[in-house]
Amino acid sequence: MSMGMLPTDLVIDLSIRYGFKVLGAIIILAGGLLVARWIGNIVHSWIGHQQIEPPIRILIVRLVRMAVVLLTLVVVIDNLGVQITPFLAGIGVAGVGIGLALQGVLSNVVAGLTIIFTKPYRVGQYIELAGEQGEVTMIDIFSTTLVHPDLSKVVIPNRKIVGEILHNFGTMRQLNLKVGVAYGTDLNHTLAIVRQVLENSAYVLKEPTPIVGIGLLDDSAIVISIRPWVKVNEYDAAQLELYQGIVERFQAGRVAIPFPQREVRLVSEP
Question: Which residue in 22, 174, 181, 245 has a CA-CA distance of 20 to 30 Å to 160?
């Protein structure tokens, strides 16, 4: 190209020299995106028939699509005549910098993958960890979401979970109810009333069998321990219903619930 070439001739020359390459790169990129989406849908459909946790499914599909897109970008760059080696080296250096800047995020991702693969808890289970407790509603790559009985949510970063002591209640919890009766009470009749209340409750699970018995001999009462199992999301409602049912049945059956008493003696001076 000579120095005296007109702007129009320059545009035509550049179009002829690079136009087909740019057009080819655009076509390859568009085709790669379509292929990535198509392959991702196939992988998603196949994984749907496997016994794999939802977060793992999403992660695998995203990684497959990302791999296809990255391969497409390499082909596009090569088609444009750009040297691949310096480009890859630049990506490596940038990756190191990004990794250092996002250490917290990456640690959450690693911890999330550890949780997903080892499965110390699952969605729907009630757990207690890091000073918090609640029902697990979501296990993501970055965090785990718990719901308290008052319906408030707690989002815990995964890096705060791995390595900590975890109490997993599963999908059911055991109530620990206590009620006191007078020492002159017919215990067999009283325990039968309690078992009947438990049997008639829609909240109490049949298996495991509820535990009912004398838990303590207090100063002014025989304390009956009542420990049935209920579903995680029905814990509070079951406790309220059972206490009310026991009190009503005790009143109807004339079972006395004593209150603390003190005997005071006055001794006169001779």
Answer: 174
E strand residue ranges, the chain:
126-129, 132-139, 143-147, 153-157, 167-170, 172-174, 177-181, 211-217, 222-227, 229-231
What is 172-252's CATH topology?
Alpha-Beta Plaits (3.30.70)
- CATH for 120-170 is 2.30.30.60
The domain 7-101 having CATH identifier 3.20.20.140: the answer here is no
Give residue 196's pLDDT: 93
Residues 6+ away with beta carbon under 8 Å from 68: 32, 35, 36, 39, 40
Model confidence over 155-180: pLDDT tens digits?
Answer: 999 888 888 888 999 889 999 999 99
| Residue 65: exposure state from Cβ atoms within 10 A (0-12, 13-18, ≥19) | buried
- The pTM of this model reads 0.60
